[in-house]
Design a protein that fits this description.
The protein has 266 residues and is mainly α. The chain has two domains: 68 residues, no CATH class; 196 residues, no CATH class. Helix content is 86%, strand content 0%. It contains nine helices and no strands. α8 packs antiparallel against α9.
């Protein structure tokens, strides 16, 4: 599933880059559109409601800012967003499928133990999805070695399941750090460009430094926005993992109690 989301993210990045290139070509026609706006100005003064119809669409504004911020830096920041979201969505789906009604599962296992013994309990675990059922199954495989061994097995295999749930989070954290760093790097590059323009022109007029300052501010804003979005997804995933881990620990304790009761009945 993760490979599918990575491929989907790559296709989305290619499509976005193609649209940005098309938008960059369209910006050459800005003077003509400005002249057309001047011609329509008297009409808009007569009809103030016509002004809202000539507003630039949001996606066109985003494309323009993408180009003004520098295709290199902005493409890298967007790439961090796309791959970070792909991994985050994959993790959310994985954790959603990992959710198990532990209370109902424990009731089924206790009933299976009383009716069919350990083999029946194993079958219940095999037919139930989620990490909790997998942990229980590993414990039942060592039931012949005693309840203490089962308890140790459940604890050890619980750590394995925790690692599986946290798989991919390091990449999301990397993309959060990268997007912020790329934004600040674009800021530094923009400032260098501004000072180069000042040195070449021998003047500190606003028109000379405006280009470099624009690159600096747009890349910073882009990097911070991407980092904020990915940070929200990261914290949500961590909270889901914490919730599942608490369920696993609570269910494991209940399973040991059920096994002790079962052994005492024998």
């Amino acid at each position: 599933m993760k490979n599918f989301f990575i491929s989907l993210a790559t296709i989305a990045m290619m499509a976005f880059t193609a649209q940005a290139a098309a938008a960059q070509t369209d910006t050459t026609a800005v003077p003509d559109s400005a002249a057309a706006t001047e011609e329509v100005a008297p009409a808009t003064e007569a009809n103030p409601f016509a002004a809202g119809q000539s507003e630039i669409p949001l996606h066109q504004q985003l494309k323009t800012k993408f180009i003004e911020g520098g295709p290199g830096f902005m493409a890298s920041i967007i790439l961090c967003l796309i791959f970070g979201l792909a991994i985050s969505i994959e993790r959310i789906l994985y954790l959603s499928f990992s959710k198990t009604n532990t209370k109902k599962l424990l009731e089924k296992i206790e009933a299976a133990l009383n009716e069919g013994g350990v083999e029946a309990a194993k079958e219940v675990c095999r037919t139930t999805r989620g990490p909790v059922a997998s942990i229980f199954y590993q414990g039942f495989l060592r039931m012949d070695q005693g309840v203490e061994v089962v308890e140790k097995t459940v604890v050890s295999y619980g750590s394995v399941q925790m690692s599986l749930m946290e798989n991919g989070l390091t990449w999301v954290a990397l993309f959060i750090a990268l997007s912020t760093s790329l934004g600040f790097l674009g800021t530094v590059v923009g400032m260098v460009q501004a000072f180069d323009a000042i040195q070449a022109a021998g003047d500190i007029s606003p028109n000379v430094v405006a280009g470099g300052m624009k690159v600096a501010l747009i890349t910073t804003v882009g990097g911070l926005i991407v980092a904020i979005i990915l940070q929200v997804f990261y914290n949500y995933i961590v909270s889901r993992i914490d919730s599942l881990s608490i369920d696993m620990e609570d269910a494991s304790i209940s399973l040991v109690d059920i096994l002790v009761k079962y052994e005492n009945k024998k």
